[in-house]
Design a protein that fits this description.
Number of helices: 11
Distance between the termini: 47 Å
Mean pLDDT: 77
Strand content: under 5%
Radius of gyration: 18 Å
Structural class: mainly alpha
Helix content: over 70%
Order of helices and strands: HHHHHHHHHHH
Largest sheet: none
Number of strands: 0
Low-confidence stretches: 104-116
Length: 196
């Protein structure tokens, strides 16, 4: 069997039957994406890895609680949000990100995520970033993908922090306009395009 060709619903059904290959395929499809989103919020790689591990362990051990017709991407968004919220309640995250998480919580709910196709969104975002002017794209990727500060980017590229800030703002404006027609664009910005 080629598990990569199975729909999420089929994989969930197989996981309920304790099929480890189906579980491995779900992990391959979603783990890095969930890791990226959690780390954007809490900025702690070790804690993020722990949360992702806990999330997928839970999927395996409590698979009977997942509906076979559930939107798996949406389910994982909700589950990851809940884990971060619990972390905050325990006072184990940086307070700088509480505001961002508040926006995340506001936009993420089952109604919002029901129509989300995780891979479609990532492809859409990647395509639009690739269309940015070269210098702007480089600054944006250093800021959002590599998570460098404006100062670090300025030093790396030999430009001013003000230029970095403007390039990031322009990139966000362009991407917002390009993605505004997408039903989940506000979710995209909460998760991927934090502003500062």
């Amino acid at each position: 069997m080629n598990y990569t060709e199975f729909t999420d619903a089929v994989l969930i059904s197989l996981v309920k039957q304790r099929d480890r290959q189906a579980f491995a395929e779900i992990y391959d499809r979603y783990a890095m994406l969930i890791y990226y989103r959690i780390n954007l919020m809490i900025r702690d790689e070790d804690t993020t890895k722990d949360l992702v591990q806990d999330l997928f362990t839970s999927i395996w051990s409590k698979s009977d609680m997942i509906r076979e017709d559930a939107n798996l991407g949406g389910y994982l968004y909700i589950a990851s949000k809940n884990r971060v919220l619990k972390l905050i309640q325990k006072g184990k995250t940086k307070s700088d990100y509480l505001n961002e998480l508040g926006r995340y919580s506001l936009h993420i709910n089952y109604d919002t995520v029901e129509g989300i196709d995780e891979r479609e969104l990532m492809l859409l975002i990647t395509q639009e970033i690739a269309k940015l002017p070269p210098k702007m794209r480089e600054v944006f990727q250093l800021s959002r993908i590599e998570d460098l500060s404006h100062k670090e980017i300025a030093e790396k590229l030999g430009i001013s922090e003000g230029t970095v800030r403007k390039q990031v703002q322009y990139a966000l404006r362009i991407l917002k306009e390009k993605l505004a027609h997408h039903s989940a664009y506000s979710l995209l910005f909460v998760l991927l395009f934090r502003s500062y």
